[in-house]
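Field reference: sequence -> structure
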Amino acid sequence: MSDTNFDPNIPGSFTFWTQERLRAGDLDIVGHVNNNAIGVFLENGRVRMFMAAGENLYSAAAAGGGAPETTWVVRRLEIDFVREIRFPGIVWTGTRVTRFGNTSCRVEQGVFVDGTCRVTAVATAVCFDPHARASVPISDTLREQLVRACGLDGDGPPAL
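Structure field:
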């Protein structure tokens, strides 16, 4: 799965979206949304995408059932702060799997305000067995579910 036309700076590159309302507590000393808040936007986008693919990431543990059979961990995260984000407002995070390996996938994201890209990110997400504490191969079924999830709307597209 690779798309040579994919550009994380363009909203049309994404079909799975999550929305976050900016909070005053997200600001740094100069009035920008801080890098910690941006990390949360990115994490929420990845988690919601994996959940849309049918991954039981947190519900088993929340229900007292222990860890799920597999989950995802981030091995590498690269964030580019393209333009500042200022309070107040709404941010939209587009999330998409752009490549699969044997045990990991490349997750690319863009954070947008008013249709303009403010942040791009690339994560290497590893399929992980929490009982064995080791990476495991991504099943064909899970690959198909992730491809389908990337075609879902999530919270809907950003207003352009």
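Note: The first strand starts at residue 16 and ends at 21.
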